[in-house]
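Thread: Modeling a multi-component assembly for a lab meeting

Hi all, long-time lurker, first post. My supervisor asked me to bring a structural picture of a complex we are working on to next week's group meeting, and I have zero experience with this. I have the sequence lines for every component (212 residues in total). Could someone generate the structure of the whole assembly? Inputs are pasted exactly as I received them:
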Amino acid sequence: MEREEVMTRLKKGFWQPEEDLILKKYVETHGEGNWTKVSLRSGLMRGGKSCRLRWKNYLRPNIKRGTMSEDEKDLIIRLHKLLGNRWSLIAGRLPGRTDNEVKNYWNTHLNKTCSPRKASDHRPKINHNLCPQAPMRDKDSQSTSEGLKGKDDDCEGSCQADPRDVHRFYFDIESPALPAYNALFFDEDEPFLPILDSIVWFESFGSTGEEM
DNA sequence: AACGCTATCAACCGCTCTCGC
DNA sequence: AGCGAGAGCGGTTGATAGCGT
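Re: Modeling a multi-component assembly
Sure thing. I ran the full set together rather than chain by chain. Output:
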């Protein structure tokens, strides 16, 4: 009853500073999660989804705002090649950045320069049959800033990777990118890890991230 | 100064996934 | 096993700021 009433009077549009404050206080007191309860009990006339989004994208501690650094930009490009439009996964590798921000940044800044086709068109279709034996690379060549060199050229070329081109896909993976963020790659559950051959993954980056 | 166009980004929508019953 | 609710994700929309004419 209470719930239905609230749902019918939900507020939309931009968040006001007072609303931010209420949400922030509520989450700090009660913790994240249960977003429907948050919307019901905090007094905010917002849907649970809206509360969650606002918290996640703006109110959460350690959110980094402002322009993307060159490293971040490069990482986004490379991760997008690897993961496609898996914005939450990409954002998970960029400390302080949110999926929404990464997505917006890609669509406004990178998509036009890096991909002639719609971003959604080259989301890689990953499956177990893909390249069971990925090309190995000398571990010495990994995790260096070398990978960042000539990124614009790289962008021109390999951002256009055809998802059908399985071998190309894995060659992109094993290119030595991710200098500063390499260690972040394995620190949390990865829903796609079971999909990717774990050996390929390990060989590609030469790190399990456990030795952070 | 006024208008139109473009770029940017916050927020919403709809779908899928996960989990508890 | 099946169902429903809640959570999460990616795509899209809409407001508005900035810029050019």
